[in-house]
Amino acid sequence: MVRAMSTPETTAFTRDLPRHPVGEPIALTDPRHPCHPNYVAPRVTRSILRFFSYAHLPAHLQAVSRPFADLAAHIDATIPHNAESTVALRKLLEAKDAAVRATLPEVSA
Asked: For the segment 83-97, what is each residue's pLDDT rounded down to a tens digit?
């Protein structure tokens, strides 16, 4: 019996490839590969949306936070889920946090 021997380079390359749930490596040309231009991130990556909730805030801060939550929901519903849309949501969250903080009264030292 003849066995094919793998080189360290081949083993390292295939070991680092993303794998399909069944276990075989996913080629770069496969849309399931994270580097593929048509890759769609799993819905799980959108857990950032929980940070846009505003029901716990006082009414005057809810008024500031609500438009950001509405835009976040719009982005989630209409823009493909990929790295750039996740960045868009993260930056929107930063903007929302800054707007809410800007509304808070200044504390004198």
From this structure: 899 999 999 999 999
